[in-house]
Amino acid sequence: MLQSTSLPAANPLLTLTQPKASLWIIELQNGQDNRLTHDLINKAIMPALDMVERQWREQRRSALKSKDKDGGKGALIIVGRRDQDKFFSNGLDYENAIKDPNFFQLTFNPMLSRLLKFPIPTIAAINGHCYAGGLMLSLACDYRVMTDGSSRNAWLCMNEVHFGAPMPLSFTAILYAKFGDHRLRRKIALEGHRFSAKEALQDGILDHIVNGKTAEVLAKAEEIADKFSGNASMGVWGLIKANIYQEMLEAIQKDIRQVNPVIDDFAAKARL
């Protein structure tokens, strides 16, 4: 089976496919470098996640009724554009993001929380450079697979320290939850180290690296999806993650802004 949906319909920024019953793939298609904009997140990624969860839950309910042991399987892969091997995501459209005082609280952070609690295994298929917000997107997934950079350079980096952007509480909360070694958190956040795939694998940022391009990265991601998709069948994958990441999720949801009428009106404009 191969179902395909482009979102948003009028100006597609991603394509959602279901190549088989237990697998969904989100292909990011916001230009060549997949900047994480308001529209990509609010009009494409979040609706796509809703579609995947809705379809998986419908399949699981049917499987429970028919006592089909395999019917509740599910996994999601997120990959950069398949027609290039340069970028997974180059991070935020920062200049436009900071014009919205609610961007992190109302757009980016809800996406992170959604992925961190997602009810089926999620795999980031990192088929090129993965910077800043793009790295955070991948860290919100359960597994990360990346090209080894032998065909062309591919780096992972939180480079906020180099261009003067304060790191949101949500970002630091993810670093604390995902990495126990304070030296690694320092290397990522304060040094802005540019990791090769091999370095990132050695330091535990990545789970696998692949000698190849997008097709090979996707093949490895699908292998992981097949291995763990059955763990979604009992319906507790997301519930367990919510408990594992409870402190991180609470930190992400904290609203540390001093809300004034200007900020409140920005939020209302986005909502209405």
Task: Produce a short descriptive summary.
This protein is α/β, with parallel strands linked by helices and 272 residues long. Helices cover 46% and strands 17% of the residues.
Descriptive account of the structure:
With 272 residues, the protein is an alpha/beta fold. The protein has helices spanning 38-66, 94-97, 103-116, 133-139, 160-163, 169-178, 182-189, 197-202, 214-228, 237-244, 246-253, 261-271, and strands spanning 3-7, 14-20, 23-28, 75-79, 87-89, 122-126, 129-131, 143-147, 155-157, 195-196, 208-210. The strands form 2 sheets. Strands 1-2-3-4-6-8-11 form a 7-stranded mixed beta sheet, with helices on both faces. Strands 5-7-9-10 form a 4-stranded mixed beta sheet. Helix 1 (38-66) runs parallel beside helix 3 (103-116) and helix 6 packs antiparallel against helix 11. The model has no long low-confidence stretch (mean pLDDT 94).
